[in-house]
Specification:
The complex is a heterodimer. By secondary structure, chain A is mainly α. Chain A is built from 14 helices and no strands. The N terminus and C terminus of chain A are likely disordered. Chain B has one domain: Helix Hairpins, CATH 1.10.287. Classes of the chains: A mainly alpha, B mainly alpha.
């Protein structure tokens, strides 16, 4: 195992960098395509155009906001009916981009769960994250798409890659999958769930027929809701993040003498051999 | 070309979530389990945003998804810290090696 991992590791770094760069480039190119398609959609009453205007020239925003809602709303309704509910984008572009993003997300997800090396799983997760960001753009959630790229691709996946490279490759790669019956059961369960979901979902007509407002999903309107209706959860989440930071540092740092803390030890069974005498030594590792 | 509606996004969300759930159950590598959890959270986010897009009376779904992203980031940080701690103790990231709480 160790020989194998060392043999693979020699040429792995350039290839890994290439793969990461390629995945990121593909994802960003796709997100850019969605962006361009959104921007060139003829009426473009809200969304990215409004976002750009809102950040650039506030005066223009107030002008358009006061003059245009009536006619842009009318054209929205018009197009909503024409496109059968896809909103202001041209239907064909939306469909093509959706299938592309869905295929990328599914392939990435499969790569996450079948890859033997965690690094390839992380690459798959990166593909999923970027594809989902593009789908958010299609669903007119621009702020969320940007935050998805920033937080998931920029922080979570990078943290994962960092930890994977930090740990010993042999140990990281070693645990394989479960035994065959477990796998077969899991796959059977997923197929059954998917069958049920597909059957039920396409049988009922979901979604309201309300066309979204012109500024639906724009950063300005989401931000407004975030700081008025949802201000208390927003503040609470900052407390949660602070707690998580402190907790992560406390768990990962360990004690001054180098032994992990009880929080880490409780998970892995060292707590009973050093911290709590009452727990006994019946199945201690050492 | 058939149109894409809420159903398609929901089905995609179901598929991503199921893949994440299967990955969490089947894999014994703690790192990949963590990534499977991220996959499931992503799928839930996609469904939230899709519902909000096709029921656009307010932005509740999008903001909920925003909170889920924040919680996912916190969970990844703490989870990775636990994995690093586990690795220090057992020189392994297998979830089967974390059996200290087995009675």
């Amino acid at each position: 195992m160790m020989m194998n991992s060392h043999g693979c590791r020699r040429g792995a770094l350039p290839r890994l960098g290439l793969g990461l760069g390629l995945a990121a480039a593909c994802g960003l190119a796709w997100a850019g395509t969605v962006w361009a398609a959104e921007a060139e959609a003829p009426p473009a009453p809200g969304g990215l155009g409004a976002l750009a205007a809102a950040e650039g020239v506030p005066v223009v925003v107030t002008a358009t906001a006061s003059s245009s809602p009536a006619d842009s709303g009318a054209s929205l309704v018009e197009q909503y009916r024409e496109g059968g509910g896809v909103g202001r984008q041209s239907s064909r572009t939306h469909v093509v981009l959706f299938w592309f993003g869905a295929a990328a997300a599914l392939l990435g997800a499969i790569a996450v769960i079948v890859a033997r090396r965690p690094m390839r799983s992380a690459l798959g997760l990166l593909v999923v994250v970027l594809a989902t960001a593009g789908l958010y753009l299609l669903l007119r959630a621009e702020l969320l798409a940007a935050l998805q790229v920033l937080i998931y691709a920029g922080a979570v996946v990078v943290l994962l890659v960092f930890v994977i490279t930090f740990l010993d490759q042999g140990a990281v790669t070693a645990p394989g999958g479960r035994r065959l019956p477990v796998r077969v059961l899991a796959v059977a369960a997923i197929v059954y769930v998917l069958y049920l979901a597909a059957h039920e979902l396409f049988a009922m007509g979901l979604g309201s027929r309300i066309p979204p407002a012109a500024d639906f999903g724009s950063t300005a309107s989401v931000g407004h809701a975030l700081f008025t209706t949802f201000v208390i959860p927003f503040e609470a989440i900052s407390a949660l993040l602070l707690t998580a930071i402190v907790g992560a540092v406390a768990v990962a740092k360990g004690r001054a003498d180098g032994t992990p803390t009880t929080a880490g030890g409780a998970l892995s069974g060292a707590g009973e051999s050093k911290g709590t005498p009452a727990a006994g030594h019946d199945e201690g590792g050492e | 070309m058939p149109d894409v509606g809420l159903n398609h996004y929901l089905l995609l969300g179901v598929m991503l979530f199921s893949l994440g759930a299967v990955g969490f159950v089947v894999r014994r590598n703690a790192l990949i389990s963590l990534m499977s959890i991220e996959l499931m959270l992503n799928a839930a986010n996609l469904v939230l945003v899709a519902f909000n897009r096709y029921h656009p009376v307010d932005h509740t779904g999008q903001i909920f998804a925003l909170f889920v992203v924040a919680i996912a980031a916190a969970e990844a940080a703490v989870g990775l810290a636990i994995i690093v701690s586990l690795y220090r103790l057992r020189r392994s990231v297998g979830t089967d090696d974390a059996d200290g709480m087995k009675g």
